[in-house]
Specification:
This protein is mostly helical and 228 residues long. It has one domain. It is 82% helix and 0% strand. The chain has 9 helices and no strands. Helix 3 crosses helix 6, helix 6 packs across helix 7 and helix 7 runs antiparallel to helix 8.
Length: 228
């Protein structure tokens, strides 16, 4: 008899966390990519002169490009690693697909937060960009990072047994994440430029609705993806 859903999800999360702490390959690769991209972006934008309002929008867009592609270099590996190591079949026998998705999502969400914790302060420092409302910016990163991490984890399960996994992931992730990334960029720009950016705003409804729909849809469809 299989253990309860929470126990399975926690076990999957701890398994991935122990493996990453032992090897540190994913975290190192993602942080190296983020650092290299930050340096290139800083040199490219150093000579761009824009009004403060336009500068905030540019920085917000570039920041989310950086976060998305940095995450894309590490998050899709969650299920692909299982197929490559030959452990996916054993995992299917002992855990429900929904629990595996939840456990791997939790690990990927923490990985995204680690990327953001390094990339965002460095980006602000190198671009001499001081967000006017840092707490609101933090909430935007948490809500948007949740959606990016969940959808990336679910897509990883879909492409894990396909050929050309990396290309297929990017081709499917961009259209699915665009409804999240566009309001995330807008909210980031407003949080950075407007100290009075209120917690009650239509953009929060969009971010929360996306996260909720993605979670429900992923959990409902995961059984078919996992057992198919």
């Amino acid at each position: 008899m299989k253990s309860p859903f929470p126990s399975q999800a926690v076990a999957v999360f701890l398994r991935d966390a122990r493996r990453e702490l032992r090897r540190r390959t994913t975290l190192a690769a993602v942080l190296f990519f983020a650092a290299a991209a930050l340096i290139l972006i800083s040199f490219s934008l150093a000579s761009v002169a824009l009004p403060p309002g336009d500068r905030a929008k540019l920085n917000a867009g570039v920041l989310w490009i950086l976060l998305f592609f940095s995450a894309s270099s590490g998050l899709p590996r969650s299920f692909v690693r299982e197929e490559e190591s030959g452990t996916a079949l054993a995992l299917r026998k002992i855990a429900r697909g929904e629990a595996v998705l939840a456990g791997k999502f939790l690990f990927n969400f923490l990985l995204f937060l680690a990327i953001a914790a390094v990339a965002v302060p460095l980006f602000c420092l190198l671009q001499t960009w001081s967000p006017a409302n840092p707490w609101t910016l933090t909430i935007v990163l948490l809500l948007s990072g949740y959606g990016v991490s969940f959808v990336s984890t679910f897509l990883s399960a879909i492409v894990s047994r396909a050929g050309q996994k990396d290309i297929l992931f990017v081709l499917t992730a961009l259209p699915l994440l665009m409804p999240l990334l566009l309001p995330a960029v807008e909210a980031t720009a407003r949080a950075a430029a407007d100290p009075a950016f209120a917690a009650i705003d239509p953009v929060w409804k969009v971010l929360l609705s996306y996260d909720g729909l993605a979670t429900v849809g992923g959990m409902v469809l995961m059984r078919f993806v996992w057992e198919g």
